Amino acid sequence: MVAKAAKAPKAIEKGERKRPKWMSKDNLQLMSLVLPAVIKVFLFSYLPMWGVILAFEDFDFSLGPFKSKFVGFKNFEFFFKSNDAARILSNTMLMNFLFIVTGMVVSIALALLMYQVTSARKSMKFYQTVMFFPFFISWVVAARLLEALIGANGMITSTLSRMGIQYSFYNNAEIWRIILPICHIWKSAGYSCIIYYGVLVGTDATLYDAAKIDGASGFQIMTRLQIPFLTPMIVLNTLSAVSGILRADFGMFYFLANSPLLLKTTDVIDTYVFRAIQGMGNLSMGAAVGLFQSAVGFVLIVVANKLSRLYDPNYGLY
Amino acid sequence: MSKWTKVVVAALLCITLLCGCGSGGDTSGTDTSKDSTGTTQQTGESQPADTQTGDAASSEEMPTLVYYTFADRSKTQDGEEAVFAKLNEITREKIGCNLDVKFVEVAQFEQQMQNKLASGEQIDLMYTSTWLNLYAPLVSRNALLPLDDLLPVYAKEYYESIPSDWWDCTRINGKIYAAINQQVFARQPYFSYPSNIVEEVGFDWENATTYEDVEDYFKKCADAGYTSDQYSMWGGIDGSTMNEYYEFQSLGGEKTPGVIRYENDGKPVVFDQYESEEFQSYYKFARHLYEEGYVDPNVLTSTLEKPSLFRRAGAYQPYYVESLESGIFTQFAYEDVQALVKPIGKPFITTDSVIATMIGVTVNSKYPEKAVELINLINTDKEFYNTFVYGIEGVDYILNDEGKLEKTESPKYDISVNAWAYGNVFNGYVLSTDNENVWKEQDAMNKSAACSDVMGFNCDLNGVQTEVANCTAVIGEYEGPLMNGLLDFDSTYAEFIQKLKEAGVDTIIAEKQAQLDAFWEANH
User: Are residues B76 and B157 in the same domain?
Assistant: First the structure.
């Protein structure tokens, strides 16, 4: 889009009165729809970008961000010197990988199932709402709900203990590699399934009828027709998720798994940074880690996009 | 076409609106002259002013001080308008300025202050302490103005009311950067128990002075059929509790490694408390308690509402002298259950306990002199302080025949839980449930308590931030579980210490010791 915009003045110079394609009358309406999002990204992601200089400074409030002393990579030191760096990096990536995979599988399955329920359009709204609802529940509230399930006197814990199994979820780190992805699905599957469902609804239903007449089974329709329809959206979602693989959902890890005993599996970059520098009053150290996360995300998204376009030129974010 | 004109106009409007905000925030990084108060608290700034001062024009020209502190907004928002109007009346009359009080929730306070300070927003006064919005790091980043020259001139009465020993506690590199709020500075650990359980199980609480003695209480409770979550120590034990129990003095943050002990020649020595024999023996004892079943296994994680802090046994510092004498904590009585309190050790004052609650003037202040005058007012003017803390008489509280304060049934404004954060608590009204001499006794306790030999020493950890950050993370992982017996001592202690060493604990200790030695040389 930017490249095309740059061409625009040239076209005018040539004396062509024709507007560039993205400004054409048909597209203008669509462009105005995307405008708020563009403005939002510009204001909250591009304008504050100069703030990365904080990561390289020994910040001084009386001098401000532009005059504080430049200290190079000193603020990055604490994170990379940490003896837990390997652990938190691997935890962050592993957990996010689990979230991406399980979240995708479940939300696609839900979308396919919802598409099958065409006979009951009215109850459809109900299902959608039920699935979507957790998206609006904060992790703080979710943490209470989770505790009511698996806390000391929680439903699951006490059922287990009645069956003779004494198990403390909050004292066993390994089980959280399963609990957290489940929580992630609970919260986000309804949201992403709507996106996939939207794609399915947009497909031409006559294709399915034709396939049925040709003798395709339901499973074949799914694997040969529906999944290919969904693939561009899957690629898009996965690529954007990969860029955030070093960014953990702080609220989730902090509130759900808030016990030092669980840190072996649940200590991620964001919780580590919080634990380490909270209360030190050091903006720069936090900015440094944030910059590192973003830089890695940037590299990842470029590489992942390249790879996926190598596989099929149509599968890419840009 | 008209449809399109509308769309374009709307879009342009959006852009200008949003960009306006954006660039405003952007440039304020260097521009402090912008008055940010216009949008929010206009309560009583204009109309009442004219009648009060009798000088209509002056209220327009009067400077407006912005004062950031923390409070529970749910307890203030209904009555804020009236209270702030009254506070403004007082400030206009006494020091000739308007006051814009901004309450921030405690959980967001520190972060908001960092951002606002960094963005250059006008903040004249700001809460700072050793536990929230930390004082020493703010000073080392030049966020606060030195007050040495201003206090004796603009806050004479207040400045002289505080002994110079206490002022020394606020000094960093020889300068005062914040004003102390007077409260009980003396700290003393204690054990507290719910009276009903103690009576039922027949525990000799008055003679229990060590944790080993308290084990008997746990045993009796367990025998009487109570479960561990009903009697074990609330919220668990942490390093700062144990520092007080073993009379270690913390330096530069309660949880950072490195506390003081005195050698035979009286010289203070810094050592890692987590490696000390005392802590090790407590880890083992805690594990023993855990294995006996006296510790709630969910002590560190349970987010469910606790019945009451003082239904359990615990150790912390006292607030009320009178309650200590009688051994009863009326203030913390829960429903019909009173807390029995057994003080252990002696009341003790350290640098950190003196500067546990302060107000600083920031570098973004437009009117530092007025700000200091306001500090004086907060700390010396009873009417101002009580309005600030308790609200409006007749609405939020009433004074009974004895002149003691009774809160109305549903006060619209009441931040008295944190009264110690806003000024000199000794200027507050006495609660109807309290002894009328409560402030005098507390003041006497402050003046009679033993003081640390290194009072006035402030540690600057700016040079070892990498190590502090990593040690803090390690301590956060191991301290709680070890202190509460959730981890096996034999298998995890060595790992804990190993990780602390890798994180650079010795560098921190050496840094603290070097600074302390320099202080010691200069003062002895």
Answer: yes
